[in-house]
Amino acid sequence: MNEFLSAALAFPAVLFGAALVVVICFWLLVLTGAVGHDSFDTDLDADTVGLGGVPVSVSLSLLVLVSWFVSLTGSVLVLRSGATGTARALFHVLVLVGALLIAWGAVRMVLRRFRRYFPAEPPPSRQDFVGQVCTIRTGTVGADFGQAEVAAADGSTAIVQVRQLTPPATPDEAFTAGSAGLLYAYDAEGEFFWVSPYDAALAPRPLPRDAG
């Protein structure tokens, strides 16, 4: 028991032990609903180190757990070797590097088997454009012709087919190139959007901040 405690409190096992405590606290918060299991997905990209395909919290938790176990085992072996001074410090550094490399390889192997249980984000859909404001790119828009430019959520733009359900009641409602329109419905069979005139002056605006 004393050997285990000495190894757990020795470098580098103590570092991974502290990280493991953080991991346990995080998953307790997930169980209580205080945070989501995918809280770090937008902040970290695990794909760059080959640990993508699952939520970042899952891959990091496994990495910390395996690193702690390997470093603990390595620390026990270092203590049993009887090495002291510089040699002992060198062995601890080797345990640190080895724990990280072994954990990375082991977690990467495990994730290959479990990626299918974490489906990727659904691809962008044209339905995402419904409710967006577009800019008309053709001289007119009718029941059988018209194109507009609309911005996607990622900042890119797309040219889409648009149609106007009814003729404009007044010249002010007629579409011309550069007019603003509102995409309010999508016709999947015809692969076009229904568009109506959009007046920016009628759009909701944020309340002005109190100057004082």
TrEMBL record:
This is DUF1449 family protein. The chain crosses the membrane at residues 6-36, 48-69, 89-107. Keywords: Membrane, Transmembrane, Transmembrane helix.
